[in-house]
Every structure is written in structure tokens, then in C-alpha cells.
Design brief:
This protein has helices at 10-15, 17-22, 42-51, 73-78, 87-94, 112-119, 128-131, 152-168, 179-206, 218-228, 241-253, 288-295, 319-335, 351-362; strands at residues 27-30, 56-59, 98-99, 104-105, 137-143, 211-215, 232-235, 259-263, 278-281, 307-313. Strand 1, helix 3 (42-51) and strand 2 form a beta-alpha-beta unit. The termini are far apart. The protein is of the alpha/beta class.
Length: 372
Amino acid sequence: VPARWTIVNYDILARKKPQLVKHRWAGVILDEAHYIKNPEAARSKAALAVLDHVEDRYLLTGTPVMNRPIELFNLLRAVGHPLGDDYVEFGKRYCDGFKDGYGWDFSGASNLDELKARTEGTILARKKEDVLDLPPKLRTTVPVELDPARYQATVDEIVALARQQAASNSGRVRWNELLPVFSKLRHAIAKDKAKHTAALVEDAVASGEKAIVFTGFNAVADALERHFGDAAVRLTGDTAQAARQEAVDRFQSDPAVKVFVGNILAAGTGITLTAATQVFFNDLDWVPANHLQAEDRAYRIGQQRMVNVYYVTAPGTLDDVVWGVLEQKLAVLEQLDYSKRGAAEAGSVDEAVLERLLRDFAGPLDPSAPAG
């Protein structure tokens, strides 16, 4: 790197904000800019403090919107776009914002055609297939059979809590407060699916391929690593920094290492795993961009063969709900696809989607309805 360039990671940026703000930068390029989507995060505040004093500023990211339009606000704020001036007005106009008794709720989406039109001159987007000569990528869902009755007690707990909240909150449910119970149920389903995922990976390895397996739970990663033994490497949030690159290097270059077991967040960005052509998701994350990022560990520069991506799902379980939420969120991301010219269609993703899906799955949530 030429001496006139300085590379600063986000942790150092947050720690050394005063010194970096005082420095007279000729320009700043912020890579992985989606990391500053949360206006309250220390690294976001530090990045904005630096960028506010710089005329030439550029943000790079493959996922400017990972979940919902509100995540675009801070990025627009960082480059000085007028839509980044007022958080509440942005949320009301483009996130179907409303007050729910706890404050503003900006989890929805609205007026997406207008948002896209007003930001197309600021956001330059290119799809990977438009700028790279890559082989195809094919996604497939693989249903596996689990016993839904095994999880009924946790489903009943979610429904009971939702009814209690609806009864005391004018019919509305605060889904974020139920996430710990959702997580418990997702964890149980993920552990039960792991044996089916392992069998699918075994088939891929037996055919001479290397495979990546993603999960959101360390206990599942531990089980899969034990199952494949010396033929596997593992990278999760608790993997030491030095061991992370070692795991990647071994998977890429050691013919004896056939399986890479990764946490979807810790191993889903910033690494290259092009030795694999088979990617398996044992469980589903709530954030569609996390899946897209993780898929592309294998589908990137250097990949010479078609990549197959498999989503292992358990019909009749909470997987149906999570998959439905992902589809709704992906629809919004598709509407805000800046690599396509022209207007987006109006759309909405909010708690009502989750409520409808859960009602279809578990029965009525109306507190006056009979239980069961």
C-alpha cells in the first residue's frame, strides 16, 4: 500500500476517533459500509465524525440494505445525501413509520419507488454477474422430515406470550421481546436437522466435492465438526483470530480437508472458500443478506465451476415462519435493487407479516380466541 494511504479498521476507528477527526484527510473510502447502518453504534458515530470533515467520501458495500430500508439512512447520512438529514422523517416516509407506545417503529417499508428514484444518482450498483465471468449459481431447498410435536411446548409458549402482549397492548405484539423464545425453538430445530445436513454433505464429499456448512448455532457447529473429524475445519465467533486464517487456508489447499463448518455471521463475510462448490445452510437466519453474503464465500473471483447452494428446511416447523419472513424481506431488497434501472414497486415488511405467518403456523393469536 502506498505511504500516502492509511488503512484503519472499524475497531481502531472507534477507539481513535479524536485523533482521526483532527487529521486532514484528502479523501476517505469506507469498505463494508453496511457496518455503520446502526446510528447508535460507536463505529457508526466515529465514521460519521470523520466523514463530516471530508469532501471526497465513498462507501463500498455489497449489501447497502440487509433487512429493511431504515438501514440505508446512515449510509446516506455518511455521504451527505439530503435524505440523510432527518432520521424520523426518513422513517415515516420510507419505512412506514408509526408510534406504537414504545417510540417510533421503522421496521416496515413504504414509498420504495420514490426512495429508489431519489437515490439512484448517489448509489452506483453492479451485480457480480455483470462484472465478473463466473459460472452459474443454483439454489435448492431440501425438505427434511422432523416431528413438529417435538417442539409444540415452545410453540405454545410463544403463542401464550403473544396473546398476553396483545391483550395488554391494544392487540399489538412486540415480537422483538419474544425473540429469546424464538431462538430457543430455532436452536432445537437446527440441532435436529444437523444429522440430515451431515448426510447430505457426506454425499457431496463422496462424489469428490468439498462442501461448506453454515449454521447460526455453535452447538450445531460443534456437532458437525465432531461428525466429520479430521476432514473438517471450523470457524465460529469463538475461533481465535490466528486460527481463522489457518482454517481457511487448510480448506483451500489441503486435499484431506473436505468440509468447512462456519457460523453464518463469523464465516459469512471477508473470506474466500472457492475450493468448495457445494454450500449447505443447516438453519435459517432472519436476515436475507446474511445468507447472500455467506453463499458468496464460494461464489467469487477464482471460482471455476458451478456452485450449488442447498437450504435444508423442516416443513411444519418454525422453519416455515422464518422462510416466509425471508421471502418478504427479499422482496423488499429486490424492489431496492439499484443494479436495475427504473422504479421499484411499493412494498411492506413489518410485524404484521410475522404475526400472519405465525398465526397460520400455530393458530389464532387473538387473546379472546380459545387456546390450542
